[in-house]
Design goal:
The protein starts with a helix and ends with a helix. The longest helix has 25 residues, at 30-54. It has helices at 2-16, 19-26, 30-54. By secondary structure, the protein is mainly alpha-helical. It has one domain.
Length: 55
């Protein structure tokens, strides 16, 4: 339960609270920066899943 609380807090603070500030700074490039971040997160998740499957 504590892990889910930590994930929810991270998502809430990291994404929902900062979208306005990021949009103000990046303008129309904000969506592109989110796509880049999503791609990096997917690559990281896949590498961790590969590591876990080996152990």
């Amino acid at each position: 339960m504590l892990i889910l609380y930590g994930i929810g807090t991270t998502v809430g603070a990291g994404i929902y609270a900062l979208i306005g500030e990021i949009s103000a700074l990046a303008g129309h490039g904000a969506a592109f920066s989110f796509m880049i971040a999503c791609g990096l997160a997917v690559i990281t998740a896949l590498s961790f899943s590969e590591l876990c499957s080996r152990f």
